[in-house]
Amino acid sequence: MPDAQVSEALLRARRRLDAALRQSGRRADATRLLAVSKTQPAERLREAYRAGQRDFGENYLQEALDKQAALAELEDIVWHFIGPLQSNKTREVAEHFRWVHSVDRLKIARRLSAQRPAELGPLEICLQVNVSGEASKSGVPPEALEALALEVAGLPNLRLRGLMAIPAPAETLDAQRRPFAQLRECLERLNTAHPERALDTLSMGMSGDLEAAVQEGATWVRLGTAIFGARPPRP
Ligand SMILES: *Cc1c(COP(=O)(O)O)cnc(C)c1O
């Protein structure tokens, strides 16, 4: 997709999101759009920025750090880490991102909390849950979620916001909705059991299943190809 088309694709994606929210009877600002920019060159992100996009999601640490350096003058970009996270990467994630959507182990959460620079304020955290039909092996099993959530909620430099999932692609709207409904029910159970720290975030839905995710209550949808076109291979 040539650079100039990013702004048009972004506009189409926003319209699609608006329509899904309207059809679901949800508020126009109930779901926010995260632009997933993995493997896209910095200039594509700059184009989306010019079209008003501020939240960007990246999966690969080194690539993300390179783009952050290239776009350093765009100071109000909000960077989200959404990829698998290993222990040896936590320090730079804690120092260079505002959100992490993919925490699925206490060890990773503890390191992020310990390594988060105090002056940046708490790191916003979603726990990745392995709902049925998950595309990968990542994610905490639903039966282990409450224990992990309680531990993570107690860590000083993190703010536990909610849950994230990456279900396998499914053909029909009903089949797409099922795992999203499961994730929403996980969140509702946590909030019923622990009303004192109500979680407000469901990070779910990608280019192929945005409507299903919005119907089930997504608060972030993570769109890559719908905004930037087909992804170039990783260098
Ligand atoms: C790549 C990716 C996306 C975006 O996928 P598209 O189908 O291109 O919209 C969303 N979430 C995660 C975690 C991803 O890795």
TrEMBL record:
Top-level lineage group: Bacteria
Protein name: Pyridoxal phosphate homeostasis protein
Keyword terms: Pyridoxal phosphate
Modified positions (N6-(pyridoxal phosphate)lysine) in chain numbering: K38
Domain Alanine racemase N-terminal: 17-232
Keyword Lyase among UniProt keywords: no
Role, per record: Pyridoxal 5'-phosphate (PLP)-binding protein, which is involved in PLP homeostasis.
Pfam families linked to this entry: Ala_racemase_N
Entry similarity comment: Belongs to the pyridoxal phosphate-binding protein YggS/PROSC family.
PROSITE patterns: UPF0001
